[in-house]
Amino acid sequence: ISGKPSVALLADKEYAVRFTVSNLKGSSSADASLLVKALPYGTTGAFTGPISRELVLNKNLGGRLNLTVASSGSYTASVTLGITAYSVISVLETDVNGANKPHGSFIIKRAAPAPPLTVTFDLDRPNHALINGDITDLILHAAFNGWRNKWGTVMPLAELYDLKTYLGYYTFALDIPAGQQGVESIPQGMGYGSFTVASTGALAVAGKLADGTAYTCSTFCGPHGEVLLYQAQYTSLGSVVGTLDIIQGADGSYVPLYGDNTLSGTVSWLRPATATHVYKAGFGPLDITAGGGRYVVPVAPALLFGVVDDGATFNAHLVFTEGGISGTSTDPVGTQTSPNINVRIKSGGLVFVPAHSTTMVPDPNPRSTTLAITQSTGFFTGHATLVDPNPAVPGGNITRTPYYYGLIIRDGSAMRGYGYFLLPRRPNLATETVLTTDQLSGQVVLERMP
């Protein structure tokens, strides 16, 4: 006699059982008890995790898995492969003696002629983790691991304290590998993102990549600070997929508590070839690095970046690099200029930006660069006005207005602002305009004066 109990239990329970056997000579009965054990702690609840890229199984887009395990041992799984989501209901295989990890296995049926997929995984309950995940058509494999949402409305005090160490608002930047720096076919700007870990552990990541593409992902904070990031993009021909990791501060003495938490992680970015003028050849998958941490709004009289305002001296600067910006540094009269400016951070996140001058030498703001900071979120933005000789029209000028966007993040022990701008190339042919030339992504950095 074998089977799987379907009763939902929070504690072990014994059931009275009567066995009866019979044949032509009569029947006989015997009484016994059946012990049904509740699923061990760390088994039930919601799990999530990213699915690795696989060229055929998910069209190299990756995916995400969401799993919800009930106290009865039954579970609902949602598997997103690229943009296609599959939902399956099944039951865990558990070992009453606890020698083997709870195991899940189910089949995803796909429209012909695609073969069915077999999905398997184990639950590492002491670590609130989902491990050994595999999706296969019996030839190809896409791996996945994940983590459990151990937070709830009613939590043991130890878990409640653990969750409090992660609460708060986080900002981060997304940087390309060192080997890709200076490579024109790869965006040289820095993407960014932010999220707030709520009192339930829930959060929604949102931001922009360095090519100006927005992304969002709703999820929850894992038991060790894990944060899922997945979204299909570019009309579902590209995607971002990866894991961010919140790292607790060195001690709990920081004000506010755990305000010195940092963030790291790796995100895979795939942009397909498109007909647009922004990196139309595509690139990737490219592993970009996430870095940042808890963003804490300065409390007066403290100022952003820890600067001091004496009412007159510049205390921060804005610097533009890459993205073709070096080719825009000569104005129509041959003066070497750039959109870089020095600024003065004032109370409340207000900022003094010098005005463009036609009489001062050197001009404090030769490209009429603007800057606005939202101190409550760390978001900053602005634009510059670039007036340069037009190579396509001798004696003519061309005006381009690159807008930039970024977030102030925790960069090690310091705070800095990182972001991107998009700049169309200057035309080289009389038939070209700034609306038809390729756009390049460059980097913008906002930081305190050295």
Task: Give an overview in words.
With 450 residues, the chain is mainly β. The chain has one helix at residues 157-164; strands at 13-23, 26-36, 45-51, 63-69, 74-81, 84-91, 103-108, 117-124, 129-136, 141-148, 168-175, 191-197, 202-208, 214-220, 226-233, 238-247, 262-271, 283-294, 316-321, 341-345, 351-352, 372-374, 379-383, 386-389, 397-400, 403-411, 414-424, 439-448. The strands form 5 sheets. Strands 6-5-4-3-10-9-8-7 form an 8-stranded antiparallel beta sheet, with no helix packed on it. Strands 14-13-12-11-18-17-16-15 form an 8-stranded antiparallel beta sheet, with no helix packed on it. It starts with 12 loop residues before the first strand and ends with a strand.
Q: What's the quaternary structure here?
A: single chain
Radius of gyration: 28 Å
**Helical fraction:** under 10%
As laid out across the biggest beta sheet, the strand order is: 6-5-4-3-10-9-8-7
What structural category do the secondary elements indicate? Answer: mainly beta
Taking the alpha carbons of the first and last residues, their distance comes to 76 Å
* Secondary structure tally, helices: 1
- N-to-C series of helices and strands: EEEEEEEEEEHEEEEEEEEEEEEEEEEEE
| Main beta sheet | 8 strands, antiparallel
